[in-house]
Amino acid sequence: MTYDDEKEKSSAGPNSADDRVLGRLIAFSDGVFAIAITLLIIGVVIPEGTTDFNLNAVLSSLWPNYLAFLISFFVIGLYWIVHVRQFRFVRKYDSALLWLNLLFLLFIVIMPFTTSIVSRYESQTAVIIYAANVACVGYTRTAAWFYSAHNHRLIDKRLTSPYIKRTTILNLIAPSIFALSIGIAFINYHLAQYIWISIFIIHVIASPIFRLPKLD
Predict the structure, then answer these.
(1) What span, in angstroms and rounded, lies between the C-alpha atoms of 210 and 65?
(2) What pTM was estimated for this model as a whole?
(3) What is the pLDDT of residue 114?
(4) Backbone torsion region of residue 13, taken as left when φ is above 0, otherwise alpha when ψ lies between -120 and 50, otherwise beta
(5) Interatomic CA distance for residues 115 and 131, integer angstroms
(6) Which residues contact 26 (CB under 8 A, 6 or more apart)?
(7) pLDDT band at 194 (very low <50, low <70, confident <90, very high)
(8) Whose CB has fewer CB within 10 Å in the chain, the N or C terminal residue?
(9) How many CB atoms neighbour CB 119 within 10 A?
(10) Is residue 19 within 8 Å of 90, Cβ to Cβ?
(11) d(CA 156, CA 142)
(12) 60 — alpha (psi -120 to 50), left (phi > 0) or beta?
């Protein structure tokens, strides 16, 4: 934290400077999420030369694009929810948290690009690139949470250690499945894509176990 930050905190109250910076961090993150999730639809493009006579056939042939769009939409949406829930408990910040959050957003921003690749090219390479991107999203989000929560470094002191551990495990589910799918893609890249869908099923089942504690 800079000298100016310390001076501002001393004049405005013990937590007001942290609150303002965290507010800016969350607002910036929300903006990045909103832009990334909107750009996904750009990958669903009707080819030039489509006419009234072949429109139905063309729309039907775009199903890989629809599937890639939906998976990415819900993956980004899932991480937005995770981001919102976890920053609810963050009380302070430091440079490391800012950089970890920025690294996490970097991989979110890349998702529209990798989504367009996996929707246009039915290949092992496309599947691996997409899976690696999403795995990096999950692991950087987990790193930011672990850094903030370790020994209650930046989070609410009232959060229990068992809750922190359970949340860390839940954070690792999605990126681990995508990382696993990279290995499977070398054997059968179609099977690797089907495995991605299991993430949403697991999260639906696991969510009640990892319910947010009431601290207010």
Answers:
(1) 33
(2) 0.81
(3) 94
(4) left
(5) 10
(6) 87
(7) confident
(8) C
(9) 24
(10) no
(11) 17
(12) alpha
